[in-house]
Amino acid sequence: MDSDMYADELIEQYEHPHNKGAIENPDGEMHEHNPLCGDDITIYFILQGDAIKDVKFSGTGCVISMSTASKLTDFVKGKTMGEIGGMGAKNVIDLIGIDPGPARLKCATLSLRALKEAIFLHEHKAVDAETKKL
Amino acid sequence: MAVDFERIKRDFPILNVKSHGKPLVYLDSAATSQKPRQVIDAVSDFYSNYNANINRGVYEISEKATEAYSNSKNKVSSFINAGGMEEIIYVRNATEAINLVAMSWGDQNIKKGDRILISEMEHHSNIVPWQLLAKKKGAALEYIKLTEDNTRLDMEDLKAKVESGPKLLSITHVSNVLGTINDVKRITEMAHKNGAAVLIDGAQSAPHMAVDVKDIGCDFFAFSGHKMLAPTGIGVLYGKSEVLESMPPFLGGGDMIKTVEKQSATWNDLPWKFEAGTSNIEGGIGLGVAVDYLNSIGMDNITAHESELTEYALSRLDGMSGVSVFGPGQKDLDIKTGVIAFAIKGVHPHDVASIFDNEGVAIRAGHHCAMPLVVGLAPEKAVARMSFYIYNRKEDIDRALKAIETIKRIFKIN
Predict the structure, then answer these.
(1) Is B218 tagged catalytic?
(2) pLDDT, mean over chain B
(3) Which of A37, A63, A66 sits opposite B365 (nearest CB)?
(4) pLDDT tens for each residue of A27-86
(5) Does a structural domain hold residue B33?
(6) CA torsion B266→B271→B272→B277, rounded to 10°?
(7) Residue A5 Cα, gap to closest chain B Cα (Å)
(8) Is residue B241 part of a domain?
């Protein structure tokens, strides 16, 4: 375990997450689940043109998955779908400021995976290989 | 005779390993057990001194390998009081044992409209093979409920469902999440009286208590070697010889035949009829040595040791604020093994296991391959679990309790 994995800042995000909740009639929505540990997330967004106007998430999970979802949803507001399409695991690690290690990386990438899948679904495209690997 | 469990601990080289700079405390034996050097040495000795294929070579080392492998089956037969090695089929693990029964016995005996009865505390290995069979045959899969406190089988529900005449009852001896010991002898009697065949999943019982398949009376008993000190990749299906005789082969190939012509073949005698291809010889030999090791301690001594650890852990966890424990409690130690599933309020089990890990304590978190049970236990749809074995001591539980205190500090739980 990275000794910073339970740093006060992440615990604070976990206990007081940003953008937690559901959006009625979203433009995009996707549910993702980590069968290994039970992290469970649904992400919703509303678009303005090509960009994310609002985004929220609901679900339960560990500190890493929930605090990442909190930070990611803050980060992607105003970003275009194309910009989000280019994001990967490294961006998520940069966002939370720690590398959770191989056993916990999927916790960190779960919300990004759900968001990218929601975008693919919205655009009627098949999910790409990079996203499936998240 | 008192058993020196401190000495036993020294037989396990891995317990000298440091994890995150601290001596490793291994509390995940329900997932897989650690191995004593006697087992490790036996596997190494096989490869160093008499590695050869079995049941075919006429040369000395092949005969020695064949003898060691057959001896292992005889030891396993005695270990569970089976009727001899012809009732002991070696497979990869308990999962494969159950699949063997589903694909061979099930394919032959389950028809459209038949009912297969399992329980809500089963491991996925005793659920999914029956789902596949039920779908293929148009049969129904039914579940025996648990009591409202989720600690044990609801015997009223069990009685009603058994009396309605299922073709098969497949049930776990011990729950891998709750640690509940089911009264499989009584359940088998009830099922047989109503015409059902009975399979007992012994993956969590055979390593921890004396098992007598004749006394239980079941038709099949499945367990894994790796949970009882043996290498991975070796498991056991016990079947009554008359039932095994009546079943078609599971896999076709070498070793399982007597003769092969272009369009047909005849089957080898039991147990070889169910063991196609070269066996896991090292695993079989390792399992025999593991059984010797367990017998040298005595299964009743092992049960008593684990019960003492469980009582110690439960007595301390019960009073802790924010901590919930699942399964039978301190008053029901006679129906509980050393498996303690727990949750800490407001903390995801994955975080619990991560912080334990940082303290050098290995535990499991998640759904424990028992999703139908675990999703109903806690809002996180997952729980943390510590499980004990012969090499654990009270100090290990103290380390676990210390990790819980750390969690409560990080998450500011009073």
Answers:
(1) no
(2) 96
(3) A37
(4) 999 999 887 777 899 999 999 999 999 999 999 999 999 999 999 999 999 999 999 999
(5) no
(6) 130
(7) 9
(8) yes
